[in-house]
Amino acid sequence: MPWYQLEDANDPRLDELAKQYNLHPLHIEDARTADESVKVDTGAHYTFAVFKPVHLEPDPDEPSESAPVFTPIDIFAGKDFLITIANPHSTSTTEALERARRDGDDEHPSKLLYLILDTIVDLYFPAIDHFDDRIDDLEDTVLTNPSPEILQRIFTIKRELIDLRRVLVNTRDASLHLQRDPGSIIDADHQPYVRDIYDHVARLLDSVETQRDLLNNTLDIYLSSVANRTNEVMKVLTILGTIALPALAISGIYGMNLKGLPFQDSPHGAEYIAFFTILCTILLLYLLRRMKWF
Amino acid sequence: MPWYQLEDANDPRLDELAKQYNLHPLHIEDARTADESVKVDTGAHYTFAVFKPVHLEPDPDEPSESAPVFTPIDIFAGKDFLITIANPHSTSTTEALERARRDGDDEHPSKLLYLILDTIVDLYFPAIDHFDDRIDDLEDTVLTNPSPEILQRIFTIKRELIDLRRVLVNTRDASLHLQRDPGSIIDADHQPYVRDIYDHVARLLDSVETQRDLLNNTLDIYLSSVANRTNEVMKVLTILGTIALPALAISGIYGMNLKGLPFQDSPHGAEYIAFFTILCTILLLYLLRRMKWF
Amino acid sequence: MPWYQLEDANDPRLDELAKQYNLHPLHIEDARTADESVKVDTGAHYTFAVFKPVHLEPDPDEPSESAPVFTPIDIFAGKDFLITIANPHSTSTTEALERARRDGDDEHPSKLLYLILDTIVDLYFPAIDHFDDRIDDLEDTVLTNPSPEILQRIFTIKRELIDLRRVLVNTRDASLHLQRDPGSIIDADHQPYVRDIYDHVARLLDSVETQRDLLNNTLDIYLSSVANRTNEVMKVLTILGTIALPALAISGIYGMNLKGLPFQDSPHGAEYIAFFTILCTILLLYLLRRMKWF
Amino acid sequence: MPWYQLEDANDPRLDELAKQYNLHPLHIEDARTADESVKVDTGAHYTFAVFKPVHLEPDPDEPSESAPVFTPIDIFAGKDFLITIANPHSTSTTEALERARRDGDDEHPSKLLYLILDTIVDLYFPAIDHFDDRIDDLEDTVLTNPSPEILQRIFTIKRELIDLRRVLVNTRDASLHLQRDPGSIIDADHQPYVRDIYDHVARLLDSVETQRDLLNNTLDIYLSSVANRTNEVMKVLTILGTIALPALAISGIYGMNLKGLPFQDSPHGAEYIAFFTILCTILLLYLLRRMKWF
Amino acid sequence: MPWYQLEDANDPRLDELAKQYNLHPLHIEDARTADESVKVDTGAHYTFAVFKPVHLEPDPDEPSESAPVFTPIDIFAGKDFLITIANPHSTSTTEALERARRDGDDEHPSKLLYLILDTIVDLYFPAIDHFDDRIDDLEDTVLTNPSPEILQRIFTIKRELIDLRRVLVNTRDASLHLQRDPGSIIDADHQPYVRDIYDHVARLLDSVETQRDLLNNTLDIYLSSVANRTNEVMKVLTILGTIALPALAISGIYGMNLKGLPFQDSPHGAEYIAFFTILCTILLLYLLRRMKWF
Fold first, then answer.
1. Using alpha carbons only, what angle is made at residue C290 by residues C286 and C294, rounded to the nearest 5 degrees?
2. Which chains touch E (3 or more CB pairs under 8 A)?
3. pLDDT at position B218 over 70
4. DSSP code of residue E189
5. pLDDT digits (tens, 9 = 90+) for D57-79
6. A172 vs A39, A157, A168, A180, A203, CA distance in Å?
7. Can you tell me the ipTM of this complex?
8. Would you state the torsion angle of the CA atoms of residues A218, A221, A226, A228, taken in this order, to the nearest 10 degrees?
9. Residues of B at the C interface (Cβ-Cβ below 8 Å)?
C-alpha cells in the first residue's frame, strides 16, 4: 500500500495525488489553509482528517512556563492509499507519525489513521498536566504574594485553555464522527478502540473544565486579597493616627498661651504630661485591640 | 459460579482470566490505568464496570475536616463468572464487596453487580452529609469571624465538590446504561432496583448543586464582609479625626503669638477653653450620630 | 372502593396492605424514607405517588417571617383501592386530603389522586406570594437601611427558594409523567385537568426564577450600597480635613517663634487672622462644592 | 358568522355561550383568572387563545418614563363562531381588535384570530423601542452623573424586561403551536403568515436579550464608577494632606521652645521660612504629578 | 437566464417582478423592511434569501477605530431567474455581487446564490480580525494606563460583538437551511461547498465567543486595577502620614509651655531634636519596608 508522506501542503505533488486519487478540491484547499480546524470528513472513497497534535514550547522569557503549540497534520486515508501532510520540524507531528511508521506499510490505512489519532490524544495528557502544575503554582503565589502580574498570568492561561478546549472539542467530535458515521473507514473490530479514544478526549475536556473553574477561583482569591490589603493599609493608617492623637492633642493644649493649665509651673511638668500622654495612647491601643483589630 | 476476587489489577492472574474468559484488552488496560473513570461497558458476553466508592479520611492537620477519598473497584460480570478487582486496604471498597460476599456465590453475577453498586451509592450519602456540616460550619464562621483562610477552605471544598460531582455524574450515566442498554446484564425483574439507584444518584447530584450554590453564597458573604470591615475602619478613623479636630484647632489657635484672643489673660482661661473644646467635640459627635454613623 | 388512610408509614398495617395488594417493596421503602422526593411511579397494577404539600410556619424569633415547611404525602392508587399516608398534624397534608374526602369513597381512585394533586399545587401559590412579600420588603429595607443582617436574610430566602424550586421541578415532572405515561392511571377525560396542573406548576416555577433574579438584584444593591457608604465616609473625612486645614496651618504659622509675621504685634491680630482663616475655609469648601462633592 | 365581543370574563353571557358551543370548563376558568398567561390550546372543535397586548403607561411621578402594561385578551375561535373577551378601556386590546373588526364578520374565524395576533405582535415593537430609549438614556446618565437612584432605575427596567420576556416567550410558543399543531385552526395558506409572526416574536426576544446584556453593562459601569469616585476622593484627601504637610511640620518645628533653630532671630525669619515652606509644598506636588496622580 | 439587479426594494419594478414570478407578498414586505434579519426561506418555486455583508467604517472621531456596518442584500433565486436587491453605494454589497457578476448570466441561479453567500462569509473574516486588533490594543492599554474611558470602549465593542454574533448565528442557520432543506435550491454537487461555508461561519462564531471571553477578562483587569490604585493611593497617604508623624509629635512636645523637657535649655537643642526626629522617621519607614509596603 503506498503511503505518501508530504512535508508541506503546498508541495506540487499534492496536486498530482489529488488528480490520481480524485481528492475533493475543498479538502485540498482546507489542507492549504493556515488556520484550519480539527475535523474528519468522510468522502465517497476516502476519509479526510485534520488533527492538531500539541507540544509544549518553553517561554523564552520565563523558562519554567511553557505554552502549548499546535501543529496541524492532514490525512487522506483511502482503501488502498494513505497521504499525510505534516511539518517534519515539529516534535508533536513527528511523534504522532512515528508509531504508525513503525507498524509500516503493510497495515490497512484505517489502522494507521487510528494509530495516529491515538498517539495525538496521548500527547494532550502531558499538556494538561503542565496546566495543572501552572495553576497549582499560581494558587500558591496568589496566597503568599498577590501582585498585579498574577492577573496577567491568569489571563494568559485562560486564553491558552480556550484554544486547547476548542481543539479538544473538535477532536472529540471527529472521533465521534469516526465512530458513528455509517460510511466510516473504521471497521467494527476497531470501533471499541475509537470509542476508547473518545472517552479519553471526554476526560481531557472534563479536566479543562475543572481547570477553568480553578482559574476563576484564583481570580476571586486575587481580587479579595486586594480588598484585604486595602483593609490592612487602612488599619495601619488608623493605628498610626491613634498613636499620634494623644501626643498631638496634649502637646497642642500645653502649647496654648493660656494660664491655669495643671502642672504648668511644676518643675516636673514635662514628666507628668509625658506619662499622661503615654497612658492615653496605651488606653486607645487597648481599646482597638479589644475591638479585634490587630 | 466462580468469583475471582483480585486485589491488584497488575496481578498476573488477571491475564490468565482474560485469556480464559476472552476479556477485551481495552478493559484490561482500563483496569490497570491509575486514573480510570466510572463507567459501564456492555461487551458481547460480559459487562465491564468501574465504580468509585468513597470514604472520608480525616485531615492530619485538622481532625475535624475529612476529605473524600475515592478508591476504584473494577468488575467483570459474565453470565457464569464474576471478577472483582479492589484494594483490600480501603474501607470503602471492602464495605462495597462485603454485602455481596454475604449473599455468596450462589447468586447470579448480575445480582451481585447490582448489590455492589447499591452499597457504593449508599456510601455517598454520609460523604454528602459531611459536606453539609462543613458548609454550615463555614457559614457560621464567615459571619462571626471572616478571615482570609476562610477563602482557602471555601476553595478546598469547591475543588472536592467538583471531583465528587464528576464521579456522581458518571455513576448516574453508568446506572442509566445498566437500565437502558438493550444488552444489559440486569434482567427486567431487577430493573426497578437499578432505577431506584438512578434516583438516589440524581438526588445526590441535586444536593451537590445546592452545596455549590451555598458555597458561592458563603463567598459573597465573605467578600461583602471585607468591604464592610473597610467601611468600619474608615468610620473609626473618621470618628477619631472628629474627636481630635476641635482640640487640635483650638489649641493651635491659642498657641499663636498674637494679641487679642479672648480669655487670653484670664486666670481661668484654660478651663473656659477646655470646656469650649469639649463642647465642640460633643456637638460634632452628636452630628455624626444623627447621620446614623454609630 | 376501600380507601386506607394511614397516618404513619411505619404503621404495620402498611405491610399487610403491601401483601394484600402486591405493592412493590421499593415503594414501601420509599414511603418509609425520611427525605423522600416528589415522584410518580407507574407500576403494573397501581400508581405510586409522593407529593410534598407546603404550609408556612412563622419564625418563632420574627413572627413576620414565615418559612415554608414541606410534609410528604404518599399515595398508592390502584384500580379499586387507594392508600394514603400522611401526617395528620400537618395543616398542608390535612388540607390536601380534605377535598378528596368530601368527594368520598364512591369516586374512582384516579379522580381522587387528581383532586389531591390539584389541592397541593394550589397550596404553593400563597407560599410564592409570601416570598414575593418578603423580597419586596427586603428591597425596601436594602435601599433605606442596608445592614449586614440583610445579607443573611437574602441567603436564607435563597436557600428556601432552592428547596421550593426542587420540589416544584419534581412536581412538574410528576404531573408530566401522569400526562404522558402510556400506562397512566389518568384517563383521557381528565387529561386536560392534569395538563392544567402542569401549566400551574410551570407558572410557579417561572415565578421562582423571577424571585431568584430579584434576590440577586437585592444583593447587588446591598453590595453597591456598602461601596457607596465607604465613599460617603471618605467624603466626610475629607471635608473634615478641609475644614481643619486652614485653622491648623495658620495657627501653626503664628505659633512659630519667629519675627516678621504680619499683624504679629497688632492689637487686633487675632481678629484679622481669624477672619482670614474662616475665609480660607469657605473658599476650600466652595471649591469642593463646585467639584460636586456635597 | 357570529362574533361575540364580551367586555368582561365574568359576564353571565359567557356561561350561556359555554353551554351553546360546548366550551371546556377549564378554558372558562382560565379566562376568569386574574393572572392568566399567554397560551393557545387546541380543543376538539375550537381553539382557545390568551394573548397579552401591551401599551405604555406614563409614570405619574416621572412623565418621561413609561411602564409597559399588559391587558389580557381571550379568544375562542371555532369553525363558525368567534368569542373575544377584552377590557374595552385598554388602548392595546382595543387596537388589537379594531383591525379584525374592520375586516368584519364575513371573514373566517381563523383569519380573524391571525389578524388579532398580528396586531398584538406589532404592538410590542414600540414597547421594545421605548426600552431602547430608556437604556440609552441610562447609559448617558451613568457616565456623566452616577448616583444611587440609577441603580433603582436599572432594577426597575430589569424587572419589566423579565415580565416582557415571559410574555414574549409564551407568545412565541403560542405561535409555534398554531403553526405545528396538526389540528391547528390555521390552514396551509395562512401558515406562512403565522411563521412570519413567529419570526417577529423571535426577533423581539433577541432584542430583549440584548437589552438585558446592555443593562448589565450599565450596572458594571455604575459599580466601577463608584469605585472610581472613592479613588478620586482618596486622591483629593492625599493631595490636601500633601499641601498641609510642609506647613504643619515646619510651623511645628519653629513653634518649639528650643534654641539654635536657623533664622530664629533674623528679622526676616518669617519670610525665609514661608518661602522654604512653599518650596517644599511645590516639590511634593511636583512629585505626585510625576507619578501621574492628577 | 435573466438577472434583475435592483438597487432599492422600493423600486416599482419589484412589484412587476413579483407579479411576473409570483413572489410571495411576505417576502416583498420583508425586503422592504428597514431592519430585516438574515434568513433563507424556501418557497414553492424559488428561494428567498436575506444576507448582511459587513464592511468596516472608520470612526470619524478616532480614525484607528472602525465600526462594522451591515448592509442587507435580498435575493430571489428561482430555477430560471435571479433577482438581487442591494444598495450600490455600499462597498460590501458591491463586492458580494461582483464575483457572481464576473461568472455572468450563463450560470445557474443556485450557483450564483452560492457564490454570493461565499463572498459575504469571506467578508466577515477581516471584520473579526479588526476586533482581534482592537481587543489586543485594549488589553495593552488597560495594563499600562487604565482610565474610565476604557470602560466605554469595552462596552462599545461588546455591543458591536452582540450585533455581529446575531448576524453570524442567523447566517449559520441560513446555510444549514440551504444544506438540510429537502427542497433546497442547492444540488448535491454543490452541497459540500455549502457545508464548507457552514464550517467557516461556525469558526467565525467560535472566534466571537473567544472575543467575548477576552473582553470580560479586560473588564476584570480594569476593575481590579481600580482597586489596586485605591490601594496605592492609601499607601502613599499612609507613608506621608508616617513621615509627618515624628516631626509633628516631637515639635508639638517642644512647643509646650512646660518645664523639665530634655535639652530645653541646651544651645544645640534644635540640632539634637532634629537628629532625633529624623531617626524616628527613618525607623518608621524601615518598619513599613519590612512589612513589604514599598
1. 80
2. A, D
3. yes
4. G
5. 988 877 778 899 999 999 999 98
6. 9, 22, 6, 12, 10
7. 0.77
8. -170
9. 143, 192-193, 196, 199, 203, 206, 210, 213-214, 217, 220-221, 224-225, 227-228, 230-231, 234-235, 237-238, 241-242, 245, 248-249, 252-253, 255-261, 288, 293
